[in-house]
Specification:
Elements lengths: L6 H14 L5 H17 L3 H14 L7 H16 L4 H21 L1
Helix pairs in contact: 1-2, 2-3, 3-4, 4-5
């Protein structure tokens, strides 16, 4: 992604954050996710497209928790695209993901 300051992505994260605080509706979360997925569909770069799918799925976790798993799988796909046939890169990504989950559990 060339522009990490894309207003559609920022709005998606903002809506998700608002939802976490109880200040947004599921409808708002879903609409933000749809907009990010439209960006993905319009991208010609497979890495950017897949990264946008990571973001879109992460944003809509407020709609359905299972989207978090889809997001993590798309993140692994991004690693596979960036580092083809590099199982160590994939392992590092998955290990990082698991560590993040462990940290969330430790905080609660």
């Amino acid at each position: 992604m060339k522009n990490m300051k894309n207003p559609i992505i920022k709005a998606g994260y903002d809506v998700n954050e608002s939802w976490q605080k109880g200040n947004a509706r599921i409808h708002d979360v879903r609409q933000a996710g749809f907009k990010i997925h439209q960006l993905a569909k319009s991208s010609q770069d497979i890495v950017a497209q897949t990264a946008l799918r990571v973001v879109g799925q992460a944003v809509v976790t407020g709609h359905m928790r299972e989207h978090a798993m889809v997001s993590s799988d798309y993140a692994v796909k991004v690693i596979n695209l960036l580092f083809p046939n590099d199982i160590n890169a994939v392992r590092q990504e998955r290990f990082w993901q698991l560590e993040q989950l462990k940290n969330i559990e430790d905080e609660s």
